[in-house]
Amino acid sequence: MEAYERIKYYREKILGISQAKFAKKLKISASNYSNIEIARVTLTNRVLIDICEAYNLNEDWVKYGKEPIEKPKSREAEMLDFLKKINLEDNIIAQRFILSLSKLNFEEWLLLDKMISNYIKINKEANNLKNIVNNKTDDELSREEIHKLIDFELDQAEKGKTSSVSTSINSVDKEKLKNKRA
């Protein structure tokens, strides 16, 4: 099989697209591409390279039939393909995030998993406390609820964090809570 025949095979059997659609991606006319497929026009090295780049083809396969047909994709290319599938290819933040994730090694994945688990736990606890605070007035808070709230706030303060509870309990005076605890 010659190079032009392999290209035709790839277009028809693997991609299942028309000559016009295949040629459009190469930025050449459909008639010019058609002439390449039937060997009326010689496949130039420039067009060969354009085809390989546009369709991620292995140049050795096109020229000599040496497998694999397609070049292996980089992690970045695979991630960008994924973003296209979920319609986020124009979202720069999503791209940077996904590409950053693609570069993590095993230990970094474990650390990220631990951080996410801790975040979920803290967020759940904060939401529970926020619900307690938002559903009651200062005087309706039980001693146990006040202790939980203070312990959580102190724990977050020791870690150098501001919890979502502390930002949402403006109606509750923290000094009053500390005095009630004593």
UniProtKB/TrEMBL annotation:
Region (Disordered): 158-182
Domain HTH cro/C1-type: 7-62
Comp. bias (Polar residues): 162-171
A GO term for molecular function: DNA binding
InterPro entries noted in UniProt: Cro/C1-type_HTH, Lambda_DNA-bd_dom_sf
CDD domains for this protein: HTH_XRE
Superkingdom, natural source: Bacteria
Name of this chain's protein: Helix-turn-helix domain-containing protein
